Amino acid sequence: AEQEGFAPEEIEGELSAAGHGPLPVLAVVGRPNVGKSTLVNRILGRREAVVEDRPGVTRDRVTYEADWNGRRFKLVDTGGWEQDVLGIDAAVAAQAEFAIDAADAVVLVVDATVGATDTDEAVVKLLRRSGKPVVLCANKVDGPSGEADAAALWNLGLGEPHPVSALHGRGTGDLLDAVLDALPEAPAQTFGQGTGGPRRIALIGRPNVGKSSLLNKVAGEDRVVVDPLAGTTRDPVDELIELGGKTWKFVDTAGIRRRVHLQEGADYYASLRTAAAVEKAEVAVVLIDASESISVQDTRIISMAVDAGRAVVIAYNKWDQLDEERRFYLEREIEQDLVQVQWAPRVNVSAMTGRHVEKLVPAIETALAGWETRVPTGRLNSFLGELVAAHPHPIRGGKQPRILFGTQAGTRPPRFVLFASGFLEAGYRRFIERRLREEFGFEGTPIQVSVRVRE
Ligand code: GDP
Ligand code: GDP
């Protein structure tokens, strides 16, 4: 019951989508009964969110599409999170943390007739540390006599308190103008899917592993150069290549085609180029020369893709050159040096002979699917509930931290937030991550799990 109380299951898809939709996300946070839902309704111009006089009422939906002066955004009402299982402070802090994670800007609603409470102050601290833009709504200022109450909220240190009566509409226009100023434009880069564009691949690996050979092999004469920047060989070039019946965009291929001569700083520039390609891509195909020992440079390149949160496929090239002995040692090197990416699909290819090159596309598709996986909150919590019951955290100093609730805050890659009653040891966190993978797959994608401790 505790786990359900934190966030109703109905909101699941919307919450996890919130951070990654094409529209910027505005979260409305604040203590129970300050008028968040009333404000949301006011902004939407209709009575869609349920407003109740008592705190703790679970609402049907929490994410709405809204617009103001022609600008569209997503509006998240965290009112439904106000459950008293953990106390109001914990619930409100959770809202704030969600808002910090998933929202592009935050409206903090304070009841001006009550003034700033300790809970308000605590939330302000969290919000301020996050660096997210915050607009302060001094609510329940129904008439001019309330203006002084609103002004008192300057004390919170969040800048100008905007006096508003969510109930009557007073001041909401000015508030929304301030919100739009704070809210960034829709994220500039929306990923390929949904926008209909080709998926973006970065083909990366240290010099001489066979990147340009592989590119030539898979593309043949079909490649189309896109985004060429005239007259410069330094600039990135993307190429559209048809593979397995689909068109893919290989990003920054200029660096692949140009032979990198050994010179001072070459490694540095190669690594900058790799980082830039990874940044632009959705999936990284990391090429490794299987005929040689896996090097620190190989693992560093893999880490770049993982740390950037990209889907990852590992291709072992020059397979035509492997004898029995090398194969044996290769497997041992993989076990030793690449444990942290055991989840990445693997293909053994030869850019020279074309061996298994056709397996690249299925591996890429698997990785992208893992990258986009979304676990419903209900399923996640029943899984966590069983897991925690069967494998409780070890008792430390007489206390036993428990996972109270979890939610997937985003995809591409999957990001999870676990709310726990105490600090979770690293070993236990790794255990949870491992079990999450066993249960839900996530092949080909890094996953991020963060833990929020409720004291
Ligand atoms: P939430 O739980 O924080 O979302 O708050 P609600 O939107 O449910 O509002 C709580 C109570 O405050 C309700 O009875 C509202 O009618 C009332 N309320 C909300 N905004 C205002 C306002 O601007 N002025 C006055 N007087 N009451 C308000
Ligand atoms: P890049 O620097 O990663 O783009 O690597 P290249 O594609 O230029 O390849 C470096 C060298 O490895 C060239 O001499 C290629 O002919 C050779 N090479 C690439 N792929 C293979 C392969 O699958 N098998 C063998 N035997 N040689 C390869």
The number of distinct helices, counting runs of at least 4 residues, comes to 16
Taking the alpha carbons of the first and last residues, their distance comes to 19 Å
Q: What best-fitting shape do the alpha-carbon axes yield?
A: elongated
DSSP summary, beta strand count: 16
* Strand neighbour order, sheet with most strands: 8-9-10-7-11-12-13
Helical residue percent band: 25-40%
**Rounded radius of gyration (Å):** 26 Å
Stretches where pLDDT is under 50 for at least 5 consecutive residues are 1-21, 47-61, 187-195, 228-235, 260-265
Beta-strand content estimate: 15-25%
Global structural class: alpha/beta
Bound molecules: guanosine-5'-diphosphate
Function: GTPase that plays an essential role in the late steps of ribosome biogenesis.
Organism: Streptomyces thermolineatus
Protein name: GTPase Der
Family: Belongs to the TRAFAC class TrmE-Era-EngA-EngB-Septin-like GTPase superfamily. EngA (Der) GTPase family.
